[in-house]
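Q: Okay, next protein. This is Zinc finger BED domain-containing protein 5 from Erpetoichthys calabaricus. I've checked the sequence twice, so it should be correct. Can you predict the 3D structure?
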Amino acid sequence: MRPTMFGEKEVKEIERIPLSNNTVARRIDEMAEWAEDELIRRVVCSKYYMLQLDESTDVQGLSQLLVFVRYIWQNDAHEDILFCKPISRGTAEEIFNVIDSYIKEKGLQWKNCFGICTDGARAMCGKNSSVVTRVLKQSPCALWTHCSLHREALISKALPNDFKTVLNTAVKIVNYIKTKPLQARLFQKLCEEMGSLHTSLLLHTEVRWLSRGKVLTRLVELRNEVTIYLEGKTEYIESLLDKEFILKVTYLLDIFSKLNELNLYLQGSNESDIFAVHDRIRAFMKKLMLWRSCIEDGKYDCFETLETFIIENQVQPKTNVLSAISTHLSLLKNNFDAYFGEEMKKLDSLNWICNPFQDRLPSSMSTKASEELIDLSEDTSLKNSFNRKQLTKFWLSVAGNYPCLFDEAIKVLLPFSTSYLCEAGFSAIISIKTKYRNKLDVSNSLRLKVTKIEVDAKAVMTKNRKQIHPSH
């Protein structure tokens, strides 16, 4: 029993109940239903709510639709799991109907939904009849956000053909050893005998965002061991002995590691506003151009693994290698522009939200809102207490005095910038619904695992009129 969800007294009371399998299942259902009812009560009271949704397949091969909600409660922004439901086909129509039925069943209002965040799948965001299109018909003021993590993942996949070949070869080398149990055991024994830091390689999977960087890092760390092991076994040994190939691998390792760092920041960006996310992405775009200039000037310290290999092996990278690196860095920059540029330009005109004390008034702002912004910008006490890192709390604190500004600001700050909560939720489903429990209805167990609402055990027991008996 998780004590952070209940008080110590309630935990002891619950633990005194004689538990059969049916009793446990019943208690889980009762507590999950209480948490859901409490969440719905809060969302109904909130004038604004935002949705984040995604669908994935569980261990049983069943598609699960997972929806999270962000809302305002007690003058602060909160987020929680709204529901998890199985779906059969995963079409836009089915996904929307499941969401629409839940919204109406629970007494929520579509007009209060001001944002929806999804990945870029056609069923989610296609132009004609996608989930987003259907939501916007119900709530015309809602804004769609393409998950920043998904966009960054698409950007990082773009590789010139030369680097694609290098990456594919590196993956084949790993698979040659890793996917064959006997080969993997023999390689492990070799690493142990050599006193290596690691004793196994890592498999590459397109599904996992950080996969490529980690796979290449491990391959480079065990390059000598892999070279010794593959000698006389396969033609892949030629690639590992080719310094140009290793130069390209070490560059890919370094650039993927940098992309992974950005990815990890975005995974935690639920605590950051959209302006902070854009600041981090904009900085990364500038660094891409800095790194390109360094490479063209023959300075390699921006890519640590690449530079180490060059120094230790006294290698001078050929022009074609440097040109390929430069081209790739430019490609990344252009792709970031394509995926984020328009959104950034749009939010630049709303810069007053993260800096309301500037002198310049936005030209597109209404007269009433402009008057409020003037009053706010000249409020010395607010200026002294303003904290850039807590924008949402700041605007919530001034909602009563500056309602027009607040209304515009909160619609920009409250929406999700990524669908990471859904990804974390799917990871939780994997731990709950294993191949040994593949018939389990996951919704209530998942809610109790990920909800941020503290379940009132006494209220649950009172509601369900359960009398607690001491165990015998």
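A: Here is a summary of the prediction. Residues 319-348 form the longest helix (30 residues). The first strand starts at residue 49 and ends at 57.
Q: Noted. On to the next one.
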